[in-house]
From TrEMBL:
InterPro entries: Gfo/Idh/MocA-like_OxRdtase_N, Gfo/Idh/MocA_Oxidoreductases, GFO_IDH_MocA-like_dom, NAD(P)-bd_dom_sf. This is Gfo/Idh/MocA family protein. Residues 3-81 form the Gfo/Idh/MocA-like oxidoreductase N-terminal domain. Residues 89-210 form the GFO/IDH/MocA-like oxidoreductase domain. Pfam families: GFO_IDH_MocA, GFO_IDH_MocA_C3. It comes from Enterococcus eurekensis.
Amino acid sequence: MTTFAKELGIPFFPSLEKILTSPMDTALICSENSLHYDYTLACAYHKRHVIVENPLALKAEDAKRMILTCEENGVKLFVAHPVRYAQTIQDLKRIYEAGELGEILAIVATNHGKNPGGWFIDKELSGGGALLDHTIHLVDLSKWLFDFEIESIYARTNSHNYDDIEDSALLHIHFTNGVFMSLDTSWNRPDNYPIWGDAAMKIVTDKGTIYVDGFGRRADIYLENKPAMNHLYENDMNTTMLADFKRCIEEDLPAPVTGLDGLYPVEIANLAYQSAHTKKIITLNR
């Protein structure tokens, strides 16, 4: 790690305490999922704003404590839901709010990806596999884009490579307004796949269908004697998200993706695991 820091010319801190006593104002937490809770509370106690990678926490009660602790210490809590910032998703939101999409009847959603490896496949550190890793974004979009409320969830998981962690999962979600969504969250992309995966929705409406991929619009490139390549030609959603978070800190504006936004998909993911374990439909009490 020290070599990495030297190569990039950035400071290296040997401990969390050293970081939190440095003259920074914001911490970006990209640690193992199991450490999000401890690190967020430590930052809040040191009066540092917090940007947390998703999922916000592994347990809903931990997420609630994180939200409350940040509020009590007067610091902002941002949760990294970058797919909201993809240009394709921004365009979809504009079309929907203008009433041009029509009445939504069903959604076929996918959040496929490559197996991340490392701590992601250590259940003690990650808290779960493909279901937890890839449920967050599409569940968040169903709420943020359309304000849909979930009525029930049925989930099944499978593992082709591990004993205690799933690498494929399928969720069937019914919303209170009668709309149905299927969500495939599998790590099913091979290592040589041109891009990481997708965060996509095929939306069926009374006017037809529309397909949107949160990874953005891209060109597929095929060259002789070379592997297929994808060229993404829109602004990177992570960069756009972080720029927005930075602006909110500098101008003292409300967080655009709040702790409550981060809590919601954590609750849903835990209910999905409950469904997968019991093999029963879980109905939400709201």
